Amino acid sequence: MMTWNITCTYSQFLAQKAPSCCVSLSSFYNDTVVNCPTCTCGCRNKTEPGSCVDPNSPHLASVVSASGKTANTPLVQCTSHMCPIRVHWHVKLNYKEYWRVKITITNFNYRMNYSQWNLVVQHPNLDNITQLFSFNYKSLNPYEGLNDTSMLWGVKFYNDFLSSAGSLGNVQSEILLRKDKSTFTFDRGWAFPRRIYFNGDNCVMPPPDAYPWLPNASSKLVFSSAPAC
C-alpha cells in the first residue's frame, strides 16, 4: 500500500494564457492619463474574429446574445488592451494632512459577472487608511513589520456584484489616507500602487517611466479644503 499527500495551488499562468486584468493611472496634478499597456491581454488585430465587440455597434445586443454567454472564453469590448478587467487608480485630492484616491474597477467582459469580487492593493501608505467610502477593507500582513497591503471588496447588496460589460459594469470607491510626514511625497510615482490583484490574479501595471509624475516646475501642490472625516 502507498499513501501520499496532494497540495493544490492555483496558478494564474496555467489558468489562462494571457493576463486577465490591467491597471491604468491618472492624477489631479498631471493631465496625462496612463492607459493599460497596449496588447496587455491580447492584440485586437491578432485575436480570433468575434473575440471582441465594438461597444458603439448598433447590433451590440444581438451580437452578445448570439455569442453564447456560457462559453469560457471572454468576449470583451474592443480596446487597446483587450483585458476583461481594468482597475483605474486616480489620485484625486491633496489636503494638508490627508490625500484622496479614487479606485474604479471596470468589467469589459460580456460573458462574465463577478460576485463577491476582491481587490488586493500594495502601497506604502495603506497603513494609514482613514476612511474608505463604499468598499470594505482589511489590512494584510504577509511579513512581520510590513503593513503595505490591503484587501478591498464590495459592500453587500450595494456593489459586491460586478456586472458584465455595459453601463453598469463598474464599481468604485474613494479612499482617504493620512500622510506620513516623514516619508510622504507625490514625486516619482510614489502616489501610485506597487501591485494590484483582482480575484487573486496579478494585474499588469504600466511601465514606471510612463507614470504621471509631478511637473518639473512644481515645488508645492495646492491644498484642497479639509476633508470631512
TrEMBL record:
Q: How does it sit in the membrane?
A: Lipid-anchor; GPI-anchor
The family this protein is said to belong to: Belongs to the COBRA family.
Q: Specify the protein name.
A: COBRA C-terminal domain-containing protein
- Native organism: Glycine max
Judging by the UniProt lineage, the source's domain of life is Eukaryota
Write the record's keywords in alphabetical order, separated by commas: Glycoprotein, GPI-anchor, Lipoprotein, Membrane, Signal
Q: COBRA C-terminal domain: from which residue to which, for each copy?
A: 20-212
Q: Name one GO biological process term.
A: cellulose microfibril organization
Q: Which PANTHER family match?
A: PROTEIN COBRA
The answer to whether keyword Lipoprotein applies is: yes
